[in-house]
Task: structure prediction
Amino acid sequence: MLWLKVYLLLVAAGLGISNKISDIEGGTDDASREEYSANQRLKDGGGGAALDAAQIAGALAKAALEGLTAVGWHESKRVRRQWCSVPYAADGRAARMRLAVSEGVVRGLDSLTPEASSFLPKQQLKMRVVFRNLLMGADFQVRVNRVGAAPADAAAGHAQDRISRAWINAVVNLDSEGLPLNFADFEVDSEDASLIQATNLSGNQYAPIYKAAIKEGLMTLLLDTLSTNVKVKFNQGLQGIKASGNYSQWLKGTS
Result:
């Protein structure tokens, strides 16, 4: 069961939700560069220059994308049925509606692209990968009970969000040879979604509230997919690189 954090009063008031994007500087600062001058000894296939942060981040992203492609998620990823209880205001009182989504599908995961990277002290790599123009669609069911003069209601249909940009900020622990060990941190976030479809709500008095709940609910499901299923593929890709003992298999096309 997933409790989606949907703040309808802010959305209905037109305030929106802004997500602050923390800066990740590319390259390597002087302290990190000095530390890695001794540690960063992996070569491209055993004979090239030492790898930089962008090459390592690109290899990790490529390994993850290969994992997504192997199971068909690069084209579409199904999302299991979810439901939540969403707060809203009715007849001047606090109330809750039930929102359920099923047959959910995420599209656009093949847009995975490394965007920024840098070395950190203590043998770590900081990286950001982005996804663009993601689509999160699902069938929905919403139901509200009678609250004072506000009548009970229910609706069902199909809805779709478009998320123009979502991202993963990750920190990777590296061994003394620069190979990945594990993820020290893995955070997901996105820009605000746009609800581009919500059927069977025309003329419904609750349509604005329903649409706000559906939009935020679908976006939360997308972020949940990135932080769980997609994270699994990143972990599997990382372990594949670690087991191989070098990055050479994943370096082609990453520079």
Notes: The radius of gyration is 22 Å. Residues 1-41, 43-48 have pLDDT under 50 and may be disordered.
